[in-house]
Amino acid sequence: MQGAKTTSLTAQRHSRITVPVNSQRVNDARRCMAVRAFATGFDHKVQGAFCAGGLALLVAMTPAMGARAEVRLPPLDNDPQRCERGYTGNTIGQSNGVSGDKVLDLRFCDFTGADLSGKTLSGALLNDAILKGANLTEAVISKAFLVKANLQNANLSSSVLDRSTLDGADLRGATFVNAVITGITGFETANLEGADFTDALIGNEDAKRLCKNPTVANSEEMKEQIGCRGK
DSSP letter at 202? Predict the structure, then answer.
């Protein structure tokens, strides 16, 4: 009898149930998982509230990354189709920048005016990439390298920009409305002339770095949006 019970339970465990998939819920779940990843260490209630849409509750942002360590990037991927993977984003291993079975290497790729909205580009290598006027609304960009990337007039509204490197990036006219920004390095050397940070949720250390940027320092509007007073 005991053996029969065990077999029955095992069969139940491995039975498959087909349920309809709600794409919006899947996207929300992916975004929630990405946000929880960089909000590790914060109260679970705060994380849960953020995932439910309560952006204003996540005011205590993840501390910025510590002292920068020199990063040695892999050789440029010689796959002639590698730039096409930017339109898919990460399919597995989101936090490690894996698309299929390859690192998401988008260095020097031209995404001028491209629609990358809602894509997960975490861990992506985007150094020297061209994203002028690209639509990156609701994109999840975590642990990515965007050194000297051109994001002029790119739309990053409602995106998650987390623990990424933006040294020397061109962000002139970029839109960060309602974006979540935390743990970014390189804001001091990026060109932020005319960028829009209206209602962006910015980590305290990130705000300090932004306020040190010369293009921000010369714009009363941006200083007000970021909250530079006293920083």
Answer: E
User: Running DSSP on this structure, what letter comes out for residue 149?
Assistant: -
For 122-175, the pLDDT digits (tens) are 999 999 999 999 999 999 999 999 999 999 999 999 999 999 999 999 999 999
**Residues near 124 by Cβ (< 8 Å), separated by ≥ 6?**
86, 90, 97, 104, 105, 106, 141, 144, 145
pLDDT digits (tens, 9 = 90+) for 75-104: 999 999 999 999 998 855 444 444 455 789
Distance between CA atoms of residues 106 and 79, nearest Å = 11
Whole-angstrom distance, CA of residue 92 vs CA of residue 36: 17
Q: Is 209 helix (H, G, I), strand (E, B) or coil?
A: helix
Side-chain-side CA neighbours of residue 156 (13 Å): 30
CB 166 within 8 A of CB 148: no
Distance spanning both ends of the chain, measured CA to CA: 71
Q: List CB contacts of 126: < 8 A, sequence separation 6 or more.
A: 106, 107, 109, 144, 145, 146, 149
Tokens for 150, please give them. Answer: 């051109």
Q: What are the phi and psi torsion angles at 108 (to 5°)?
A: 70, 5
Cα atoms found within 13 Å of the Cα of residue 63, Cβ hemisphere only: 4
* φ, ψ of residue 3 in degrees (nearest 5): -65, -40
